[in-house]
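_Per-residue structure_
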Amino acid sequence: MTASISLRGVGRSFGATRALAGVELDLEPGVIGLLGPNGAGKTTLLRLLATALPPSQGTVRVLGRDPAVPAERTDIRRRLGYLPQEIGFPRGFTAFAFVDYIALLKEWTEPAARHAEVRRVLDQVGLSDVTTKRIRAMSGGQRRRVALAQALLGSPPVLILDEPTTGVDPEQRVTLRTVLAEIARTSIVVLSTHQTEDVAALCERVVVLDQGRIRYDGQVTELVRQAADRVWLADQPDPAATVSWRTGTGRYRNVAAHARDGVEHVEPSLEDAYLLLQGAPRNPETEEVAP
């Protein structure tokens, strides 16, 4: 059966604070990038998908099951990999011992098969040479890869990742992209990140959240296309630009809400398109981007 996730009219509030409102999503196998500013509701959405948090309104279905039903929630968790933004490591554990501990919690009871799986996922994230190293002695990037390894146990059909490449060096980020792309052939991979280059390199689809609502849901290429003729280089910041910054060449990259003629246009990036989307006016009644 094809892996699927469905959200209908999903909202989540914490007291008087609304974190999500009216979220409608259908997810199928592939890598889906999740972008948005701090406080947009990204982590709340991931926690809902991971069954770590119930919605205040609406319905969530993961792999055809209802996480509000305890038995179905348990079944979802058996088939789900989750990397939260922050993860606590038991004091004194090695990389192998920690991932082995998580495998036990996921009911991998047969020692030989469990240990083989632990070695497999540690190798996937490039840690096969430091399996006996204590986590407290590892770099931040290595710790992040240990955390990712536990999420990969059992090749889950749903993989929820919150900032998986934070602190990871460029070479390892490329390796991890390859791993995730392979998993996404049959699994849903939801990747929340502030790294637009990871989304551009790995994802066909991107969801942009802001103030708890979806501002964009579609192909990465289509979002980038919307920035065509709106990005140019100049010797000075352009007053017509929505944002400008000095590049390493000493020239200024200008990004504007409207197409501009008579300038040195450059190919827009996903970051350019995202900045334009964030700067676009909203409809105050729906909080969506105004047409």
User: Anything to note?
Assistant: The longest helix spans residues 111-124.
